[in-house]
Amino acid sequence: MAREIQVTIDCADPGALAPFWAEALGYRVQEPPAGFGSWDEALAAMGVPPQRRNDASAVVDPDGAGPRLFFQRVPEDKETKNRVHLDVRAAPGLEGEERMAALETECDRLVTLGARRLRRFEPDPPLSGGFIVMADPEGNEFCLD
């Protein structure tokens, strides 16, 4: 039986990182529970003190097809390369210069949202169509593929 997955990302500021990834992926920040107008209102009703209300956030695929991304605050800074990363499929079905141009366009859009461009890898058929390595606003690496 196939399992539903959630991707969990350790970070310093879940409330800031979740909106970046929502915009990057075409997702939305997860709504608060029914009956609450905001997460702050819901967390207050749950007895969560103000200093703990940015401990977590999540984004979801509005169509329900993609995995939920969960952002959790951790005390330590990121120190090394990610062992697991997201590949953002920004040019499916495209090849060559058309593919790389589409990746560059998406790279520029994400940079305006706070991402950093790290490195471009040119197409190397038959195994690689080319990709761009980037970092989100907290330095977590991901690829535009």
Can you put this structure into words, describing what you see?
The protein contains 3 helices and 8 strands; from the N terminus they run βαβαβββαβββ. The protein has 2 domains: 6-73, 2-Layer Sandwich (Signal recognition particle alu RNA binding heterodimer, srp9/1); 86-144, no CATH class. The strands form 2 sheets. The protein has a 4-stranded mixed sheet with strand order 1-4-3-2, with helices on one face. By secondary structure, it is α/β, with parallel strands linked by helices.
List the helices and strands and how they pair.
Blueprint: E1 6-11, H1 14-25, E2 28-29, H2 39-45, E3 56-60, E4 68-73, E5 86-88, H3 96-112, E6 116-121, E7 131-135, E8 141-144
Parallel strand pairs: 1-4, 5-8
Antiparallel strand pairs: 2-3, 3-4, 6-7, 7-8
Give short descriptive properties of this protein.
Signal recognition particle alu RNA binding heterodimer, srp9/1; 145 residues; 2 domains; 8 strands; 3 helices; elongated; alpha/beta; four-stranded mixed β-sheet
SS class: alpha/beta
**Cα-based radius of gyration, to the nearest Å:** 17 Å
What is the residue-mean pLDDT, rounded to a whole number? 94
* Residue share in β-strands: 25-35%
- Kindly state the percentage of residues in helix: 10-25%
Number of strands: 8
